[in-house]
Structure formats: structure tokens, C-alpha cells
User: Which sequence fits this backbone?
């Protein structure tokens, strides 16, 4: 071995680091979720009862809330009555279809399949994100970026929760990585999976088209093969066609949000529900501390947790929006526009920011920006990531116990 080889610092492969970090943290979160689900008290408001299925003793902590809708779709398909009644057409098809197909391979267990699809998607998403970061950041910044993603307070949606966010993230990051490596058709196909997974998929179409133009140096230099990125709209187009043929309205997935109290309008845009909850905080606090608060309802602690959670999610949405100009400067206009398009529905489409925490997982350039900043001030970065990790553990425990944390 030469002196140069001895002196050269050893570098960790970014993908290997990402896989190791995901596996190590995954063990911690699974243990926390399992123990919380089995031995700690559930949300006293009982917003939703537990599901009972084969294997629920082992993975029931990940099967909450919207998991029931995904199971219904995987088992029975789609139905719709009116926009005033909740129905499965509000949920995009890619994730429940995978639950159906994988569940069939497992002998008919869609919930088990959902957990496996989430874990596999989360693992792939973290690995691809590390590769994407390695193309534009130093090794320390890559490690900070990966850490920022996996210890994000709502990252438990990548580790087993039966929700579609992990599938969307792996498809979105994969599409960008494929395009940057000169595979526009494959990028478009990966993008089609994303647009068939979540409504925010239109953000990916915008990002891929702009990135294709930027890579060629302008519209006039585009090649015929670059049109492959337009395939990314295929998932959304196929879903809307299905809704049109079967229910007479290609936009029913959006209109039915009214049944969840998320209809478009001033009450949603300006977060009237959020402000009502914030105004009730002093009352809930007095009740939680043992004071008299007869008009606030009995479950002060649960209500306080809910309010604190949506305030945190709102702050994260605003922070992501503020980060867009820095993302444009550091990573390019395509990623800035993509991030803005991901954040916009979270900002305008939720009555109180609930759910925004997991929606922001799709805004992966934000985590890379955090990693780049942490490299410059590593001590501050480690403290911030440590605090985020603590919140992740707390939220994982709460989710496993049926608290509606995102």
C-alpha cells in the first residue's frame, strides 16, 4: 500500500450509508411503535378503532386511519355516491393496487402487503436520495442530508405506516435521478407511478419538464427522446380517465374533499379551524393542568397534542416555502419549482395543516438544503437533527397509539 493510499481519507459510499441509517433507525422505530401499541394507552378520543387482521399483533401499530381506505380499495375496488359523502375515490390507485397484488402473492393479506410496500419504498427512496445528493454535495453534506430525511419528525411514514407517501417519494426521486442520467423515457414511466399515487404528482411533471429543458440548454435544443418525460402525466391521465368512465367526473377525487371538510375556499385557505384551535389552547391548558375548563371538552391533553402538531406542521410548510429561493440557487430552477408545487397544496389545501407533515416528505430538496447548511455548522446541525430525532420517536409512538399526528 502506497503512502498516498494510507493518507487518503476513507469515504463511505452514500447509498451504503443511507441503507445502513435506514435499517438502524428502522429497528428503533419498529420497537418503539410495537411497544407503544401494545403497552401504552391509546388516544382517549378514540378517533378510530384498531383494525383486526392476520398479523395485527405484530404490525397493527402501522395500520391506522387511511389504511382502512387503502384496504377497502385493494379488497373491493372504488365506489362513489356523492361529493358530500366520504368515498374511496379520494385516494389515488397506485398504492392500493400494489397492496392488492402483493397481498395476493402473500395469500390475501393487503395490510401486510401495505407495510411491506411502504418499507421497500422507503428504503429505495432513501437510497435514491443519497445518490441524488452525492451528485451535488460533499460527503459530509450527503450524510447530513440523509440524516435530515430519516429523522424528520414525520419520517415514520417511510418505515411501515400504510400510507402512500413512501411510494410517491421513491417514484419522484427515481424519476429525477433517471432523467439526470439521460433516461427520459424511464424517468417518465417512474413519474407516471408518482402521478398515479398522490394528487401532488403534477409537481413532478413540472419539475421533470423544466429539468429536461435546462439540461439541453433551452427549448430549441430538446431532442425527440426528451418527450419521454411527458409520460409522467400518464398516471394522472389514466386515473382521471377511469373516474370519467366509471363515475362521470374526472375530477371527483378533488371535489370529494368536501366530505372531509377540505373544500376549497377562504375557510381552508386562511385556516379558520387552525385559529379556532389555537384560541382554545389556554382553555385546554387549564383543563390539562387541573383547572376548571368546562367548555373545552374532556380530553385536554389529546386536544393540546393535536393543536401543537398542526402548528408544527404549519411552521414546516412555511419554512419549506421560504427555502424555495435557496433551493433554486443551490440545486436549480427545476427543483425549486418542484418544491414550490409540492408545498402549495399543503399550504392552500388543508383546513388546519393536518397531514402537511407527511406531504412535505415529497419536498426532498429541502432535506438536501438542510444537509448543506448543517455541513457549514456541524455542531448546530447535530443538535437540530437530535431534536428532530426525538420528535420522530415521540410521533411514532403517538401514531402507533392512534393519535392523529399527520
Assistant:
Amino acid at each position: 500500500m502506497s503512502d498516498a493510499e494510507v493518507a487518503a481519507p476513507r469515504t463511505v459510499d452514500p447509498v451504503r450509508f443511507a441503507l445502513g441509517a435506514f435499517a438502524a433507525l428502522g429497528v428503533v422505530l419498529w420497537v418503539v411503535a410495537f411497544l407503544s401499541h401494545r403497552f401504552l394507552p391509546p388516544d382517549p378520543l378514540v378517533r378510530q378503532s384498531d383494525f383486526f387482521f392476520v398479523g395485527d399483533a405484530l404490525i397493527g401499530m402501522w395500520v391506522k386511519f387511511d389504511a382502512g381506505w387503502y384496504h377497502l380499495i385493494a379488497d373491493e375496488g372504488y365506489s362513489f355516491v356523492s361529493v358530500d359523502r366520504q368515498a374511496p375515490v379520494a385516494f389515488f390507485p397506485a398504492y392500493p393496487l400494489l397492496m392488492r397484488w402483493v397481498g395476493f402473492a402473500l395469500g390475501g393479506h393487503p395490510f401486510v402487503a401495505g407495510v411491506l410496500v411502504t418499507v421497500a419504498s422507503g428504503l429505495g427512496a432513501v437510497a435514491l436520495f443519497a445518490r441524488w445528493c452525492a451528485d451535488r454535495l460533499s460527503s459530509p453534506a450527503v450524510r447530513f442530508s440523509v440524516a435530515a430525511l430519516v429523522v424528520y419528525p414525520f419520517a415514520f411514514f417511510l418505515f411501515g405506516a400504510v400510507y402512500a407517501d413512501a411510494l410517491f417519494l421513491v417514484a419522484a426521486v427515481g424519476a429525477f435521478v433517471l432523467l439526470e442520467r439521460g433516461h427520459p423515457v424511464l424517468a417518465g414511466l417512474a413519474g407516471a407511478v408518482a402521478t398515479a399515487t398522490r394528487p401532488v404528482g403534477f409537481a413532478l411533471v413540472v419539475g421533470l419538464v423544466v429539468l429536461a429543458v435546462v439540461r439541453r440548454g433551452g427549448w430549441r435544443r430538446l431532442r425527440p427522446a426528451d418527450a419521454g418525460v411527458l409520460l409522467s402525466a400518464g398516471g394522472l391521465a389514466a386515473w382521471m380517465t377511469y373516474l370519467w368512465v366509471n363515475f362521470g367526473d374526472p375530477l371527483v377525487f378533488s371535489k370529494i374533499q368536501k366530505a372531509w371538510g377540505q373544500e376549497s375556499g377562504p375557510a381552508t385557505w386562511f385556516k379558520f379551524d387552525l385559529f379556532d384551535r389555537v384560541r382554545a389552547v389556554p382553555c385546554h391548558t387549564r383543563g390539562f393542568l387541573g383547572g376548571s375548563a368546562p367548555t373545552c371538552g374532556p380530553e385536554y391533553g389529546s386536544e393540546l397534542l393535536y393543536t401543537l402538531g398542526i402548528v408544527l406542521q404549519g411552521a414546516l410548510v412555511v419554512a419549506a416555502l421560504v427555502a424555495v429561493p435557496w433551493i433554486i440557487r443551490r440545486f436549480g430552477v427545476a427543483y425549486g419549482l418542484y418544491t414550490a408545487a409540492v408545498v402549495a397544496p399543503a399550504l392552500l389545501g388543508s383546513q388546519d395543516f393536518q397531514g402537511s407533515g407527511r406531504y412535505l416528505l415529497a419536498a426532498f430538496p429541502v432535506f438536501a438544503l438542510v444537509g448543506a447548511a448543517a455541513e457549514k455548522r456541524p455542531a448546530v446541525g447535530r443538535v437540530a437533527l437530535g431534536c428532530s430525532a426525538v420528535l420522530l420517536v415521540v410521533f411514532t409512538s403517538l401514531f402507533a397509539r392512534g393519535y392523529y399526528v399527520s
The radius of gyration is 22 Å. The mean pLDDT is 91. Residues 236 and 364 are 21 Å apart (CA to CA). The chain has 20 helices and no strands.
